[in-house]
Design brief:
This is Aldehyde oxidoreductase iron-sulfur subunit PaoA. This protein is an alpha+beta fold. Helices cover about 30% and strands about 20% of the residues. It has a five-stranded mixed sheet, with helices on both faces. α2 packs across α5 and α3 crosses α5. Bound molecules: FE2/S2 (inorganic) cluster.
Length: about 150
């Protein structure tokens, strides 16, 4: 298999990683960059657990190849807090009780950051619609929308 070296800025740090050309961005993050906060749910674009920000835009990292993102600016859940201080959206997830098992939470938070940045936070229904790519098997949707709404204020 062909390998390539990709250079990316991940959570503010310059990284240079050798990857098999067939490697998804998700697998690169988890297995090469050792950033396992990004979760693999379905690995086929249906659950949103693998959501990260690429250049500030939310992306399902399982659906795209690492080699397509040479030079990209990547943010994962590990890069959201400011040192020991949680991001306001992370704090809102705690305050609003917006997770149960937590498996979908990194993806929900990354997607929530995108949702806020895109300005789709006018009402709980609007948030639910723009967060519809992120599945929560525990059904914490009401509280997830509340947390995003709180953080957007
Ligand atoms: Fe990527 Fe489910 S793991 S959408």
């Amino acid at each position: 298999a062909q390998t390539s070296v990709v250079r990316m800025r991940i959570n503010g740090e310059e990284r240079e990683l050798a990857v098999d050309n067939r490697t998804s961005l998700l697998d690169m993050l988890r297995e090469r960059a050792e950033l396992t906060g990004t979760k693999k749910g379905c690995d086929q674009g249906a659950c949103g657990a693998c959501t990260i920000l690429v250049g500030g835009q939310r992306v399902n990292s399982c659906l795209t190849l690492a080699v397509m993102h040479d030079g990209a600016e990547i943010t994962t859940i590990e890069g959201v807090a400011d040192g020991d201080r949680l991001h306001p959206l992370q704090q809102a997830f705690i305050d609003e009780d917006a997770f149960q098992c937590g498996a979908c939470t990194p993806g929900q938070i990354m997607s929530g950051l995108g949702c806020i940045r895109e300005g789709h936070t006018g009402s709980p229904a609007e948030i639910r619609e723009w967060m519809s790519g992120n599945i929560c098997r525990c059904g914490a949707y009401t509280n997830i929308a509340a947390a995003i709404g709180t953080a957007a204020k």
